[in-house]
Design goal:
By secondary structure, the protein is an alpha+beta fold. The chain has 3 helices and 7 strands. The strands form 2 sheets. A 5-stranded antiparallel sheet has the order 3-6-5-4-7. The chain has a two-stranded antiparallel ribbon with strand order 1-2. A hairpin with an 8-residue loop joins β5 and β6.
Amino acid sequence: MESPTPTVPRPAGPNRTELPITTTAPVRRERRWSVAALCIVLAVVCALGAAWAVTSASSRTRVLAVARDVPAGQALTAADVTVAEVSADAALSPLPAADRTSVLGKRAAVDLRKGGLLLSSQLTAGTGLGDDQQQVGVLVKRGQAPAGTLQPGDKVLAVTTPPQGTTTTKDDTVPDSVETTVVSVSRPDASGSVVVNLAVGTSEGPTLATLASQGRIALVREPRSK
């Protein structure tokens, strides 16, 4: 029978070597907490982003927009109006999409540009100007009408001017004039001339058209408060 191996006592005294204490376990625990905290932060950020997206989507509203360019005085058709979604803003007052049917047939009070929001102030009241009257287009050169002030709906006097090459004297009678209403005004051409469509009575249309073809019409805008 083998005898047990005798144990060797651990040396004591200054020659004894101390074993280092490792910190492996605390380091791993600290890393796990860092990863968990990062995941929590990312989850909170994602939740806030989703909440913001839902809030933004719910605050958008459907409004009317201009689908293509429409000159002043022209009646709106279904092809001229489209529906757009915009963020709700108290500073904007576009017409709601529910009013699409009611705006068809109304005339543009100003030139409408494709992509712009449609406002009630850009449309004339009623079904339009001059629908039961004759319309005459008058080419107006510089000095024959107030510059840049004529708008659809304005009351104007179409004044007959003397033929070219003639002069007036004090004994000449007061020039004839016809009361008309502006239907639309075109953009100025390179020379600054514009075409003004005027609505007049059926008995005055032919005479006004003849004078307009001779360049013998000047326009005087009546006071808008009249």
